[in-house]
């Protein structure tokens, strides 16, 4: 059986990677699909192409994982898959479950698509892409919260902030 792991992945986090690692052990093949929503254009830190590149780099070590993109309804994407697939969704907390349960029921109702939930490891339950983006925007260290590909991309995106913060830390260390 195959699986589709959809998301915006702006950027992919260690929690996403945890869910993906376990999904890759369970399913024959997992397609990580980056959702492209024209209505959310400009709301992402990374462009669609950047997110795809980050994902390809972060998942390169998985022999049974591929990266794709789609726009529109996930159930339409699922219907185009050549083999039977299920949707994989990661959960961090009860609040995720309530939202994801509604989406799973809707996907089953409108497209007969099954959803499998995988709980992220407890150590990643507080990590979200939005929190990672915010920490990185201030030059904070996110290296344990994201795979290397995401950390490098965030550092490039906020290079001026990281350089400024490192200079400030260096100045503080020198003055001591």
Automatic annotation (TrEMBL):
Nucleotidyltransferase among keywords: yes
Q: What is its EC number?
A: 2.7.7.3
Binding residue positions for ATP: 8-9, 16, 90-92, 100, 124-130
Give the record's GO CC terms.
Answer: cytoplasm
Write out the catalysed reaction: (R)-4'-phosphopantetheine + ATP + H(+) = 3'-dephospho-CoA + diphosphate
Please indicate which residues carry the site annotation Transition state stabilizer. 16
Q: What is the annotated localization of this protein? A: Cytoplasm
The entry's substrate-binding residues are 8, 40, 74, 89
> So which cofactors does this thing need?
Mg(2+)
Q: What is its main location?
A: cytoplasm
Q: Does the keyword Flavoprotein apply?
A: no
Query: Coiled-coil region(s) at which residues?
Result: none
Ranges for domain Cytidyltransferase-like come to: 4-134
GO BP annotations, alphabetical order:
coenzyme A biosynthetic process
Q: Name one GO molecular function term.
A: pantetheine-phosphate adenylyltransferase activity
Family membership: Belongs to the bacterial CoaD family.
HAMAP family documented for this protein: PPAT_bact (MF_00151)
Quaternary data: Homohexamer.
Question: Per its record, how is this protein called by name?
Answer: Phosphopantetheine adenylyltransferase
Point out the gene that encodes the protein: coaD
């Amino acid at each position: 059986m195959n699986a589709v792991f959809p998301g915006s992945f702006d950027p992919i986090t260690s929690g996403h990677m945890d869910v993906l690692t376990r999904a890759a052990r369970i399913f024959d093949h997992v397609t990580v699909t980056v959702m492209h929503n024209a209505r959310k254009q400009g709301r992402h830190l990374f462009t669609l192409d950047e997110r795809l590149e980050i994902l390809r780099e972060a998942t390169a070590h998985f022999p049974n994982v591929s990266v794709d993109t789609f726009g529109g309804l996930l159930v339409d994407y699922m219907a185009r898959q050549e083999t039977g697939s299920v949707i994989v969704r990661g959960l961090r907390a009860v609040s995720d479950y309530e939202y994801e349960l509604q989406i799973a029921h809707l996907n089953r109702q409108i497209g007969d698509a099954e959803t499998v939930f995988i709980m992220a490891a407890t150590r990643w339950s507080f990590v979200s892409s939005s929190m990672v983006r915010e920490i990185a925007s201030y030059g904070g260290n996110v290296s344990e919260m994201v795979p290397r590909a995401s950390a490098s991309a965030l550092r490039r995106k906020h290079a001026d902030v990281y350089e400024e913060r490192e200079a400030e830390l260096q100045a503080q260390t020198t003055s001591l």
